[in-house]
């Protein structure tokens, strides 16, 4: 069966072990054209986990998430929300860069639902390891990964979602924590549910803000992102 599951360590693993194992992942075709896997950064016991879409061009080259322009904007938004970036765990729904070649340039290409689904075991396992109180999904791709259903960011942002709002395809569906002893795939082949089911805040992706040309609109969008991050930080405190 396609997907990352068979590359995951067999027993419950910490983030370092997951990140090491992910270098070998062939769970979908995206590894082939990317430079390297981009796993995560930040404290492994952070109360707040932020999930982006996929690494971009800079991240692909450096091997670290959110080190390019979107990452700088996210840093600014976290600062404005009173959340030191060093205190949050940053990761992505998809761990390899998907792009289209245009001459020498590599243009970001949104991952398909199949890529999100293939990569989900990594996200499920790292959230299980970090056990945050709140997961922030940045944009629709991350929202789909976390909640297991299509999301509409504009309609669902600005509040703390319970996992009752997640569907069965979510690694966090059901809400109730399991007994913490499971490891590997469950009987139905889905990734194991995190021991600790977090709450979720959905907000815009910082990259979307970079594309807003109008200054006033961009400021308003930044302020809304900051509000959502502050809400998430409060819920995680
Ligand atoms: N955008 C993302 O979603 N993730 C990154 O790591 C960088 C840009
Ligand atoms: Fe594996 Fe995810 Fe990379 Fe696909 S994108 S090869 S599932 S790590």
Largest sheet composition: 6 strands, mixed
Helix content: 25-40%
Number of strands: 8
Structural class: alpha/beta
Q: What separation lies between the terminal Cα atoms?
A: 40 Å
List the helices and strands in order.
Answer: HEEHHEEEHEHHEEHH
Shape: globular
What bound compounds does this protein have?
uracil, iron/sulfur cluster
Averaging pLDDT over every residue, what do you get?
90
How many whole angstroms does the radius of gyration measure? 17 Å
Number of helices: 8
> What number of structural domains do the residues give?
1
Physical arrangement of strands within the biggest beta sheet: 1-3-2-6-8-7
**CATH fold annotation:** Uracil-DNA Glycosylase, subunit E
The CATH superfamily appears as Uracil-DNA glycosylase-like domain
What's the CATH architecture? 3-Layer(aba) Sandwich
In the CATH scheme, the class would be Alpha Beta
Strand residues, percent: 5-15%
Low-confidence stretches: 175-186
